[in-house]
Structure formats: C-alpha cells, structure tokens
Design goal:
Blueprint lengths: L14 H36 L1 H27 L4 H25 L4 H5 L10 H19 L16
Length: 161
C-alpha cells in the first residue's frame, strides 16, 4: 500500500535538474576531501618538505584530479544529459566553490590580499586552473564517456543533410 502524499504532488525532476542535484551532492562530498587536501596534506605534510608554492601546486593538481574523478561520478549517475546541461553543471559547481571559498574566508575575516594569493598564476599559483577544471570537467568527461551522436535520419548517408 502506497503512503498518501497529504495533498502534495510529486514531480519527476527534469534531466538538467537531476544533474544539478547530483552536482550539488558531489560538491558536498568534496568539501571534507578538499579540507583534508588543504589543511592536512598541503599545510602539514607538503609545505614543510617542499615549500609553500610547491605544496600549493601539488594540492591544486590533486584537486583537479579529484574534480575529474567526481565529474565522472556525476555523469555516471546522471546518465541522461546534454552538453549544454553539463556546462551548466560546471558553472554551478564552480559557483558553489567560489561562494564557499570567498564566503568562508570573509566570514573568518581572512584578508582579501591573502585570498587573492592563489589567483596569481604568473607566480605559479593554480587556483584559477582548479576553477577551470570545475567549469569544464563535467562537459569534457561527459563528452568522453557518452559522446554526442548524430540523430538517426540525418547525416551524409541518409540523404537529409
């Protein structure tokens, strides 16, 4: 016997909404992973051994690899997606991290100059590349895992194109 919905109608999510929900969940899972990467591995393990800049580079390269892995997980669970929705998921994922990083940093009164250090790619810092990975990983991984195929009835052999 099905439980009554008490007047609430439930609707199935659109494929794009479902993709964004999975992206949000991946972001939530990634928060503690990123914290361990930054505060344990980078600050306590890598920095004393190789210096702050190299530790940052190792940590950010690790973060890019994690983003690609999570993009695979996102596309695996979403299954039904279009390239446009994958790009939207990337924009959403990147915006979540920007809001989290800036909001959290400003909340703990971290100086803006300190926040901006990671943005200086000309000095070897890699934070913009990490954001680019969040932006593009869902699209690139999704296109590699499930390439866009032409619709049936179009193309050079069908005589319609």
């Amino acid at each position: 016997m099905r439980p009554r919905s008490r007047g609430r109608r439930t609707r199935a999510l659109t494929p794009t909404a479902y993709l964004l929900m999975i992206t949000f969940r991946a972001w939530l899972v990634e928060i503690p992973i990123a914290a361990v990467n930054a505060f344990v591995l980078m600050d306590r393990l890598y920095t004393p051994r190789v210096g702050a800049l190299t530790a940052h580079q190792i940590g950010m390269a690790t973060r890019i690899a994690i983003a690609v892995l999570l993009a695979y997980v996102i596309t695996y669970f979403a299954r039904d997606y279009a390239p446009r929705s994958l790009l939207l998921a990337g924009v959403f994922w990147m915006a979540l991290w920007l809001a989290f990083e800036w909001g959290g940093s400003l909340l703990i009164r971290r100086p803006v100059q300190e926040i901006l250090i990671g943005w200086h790619v000309e000095r070897g810092y890699m934070w913009p590349y990490v954001l680019l990975a969040y932006l593009l990983a869902p699209l690139l991984v999704g296109s590699a895992v499930h390439p866009v195929r032409p619709s049936r009835g179009t193309g050079p052999r069908s005589g319609t194109a």
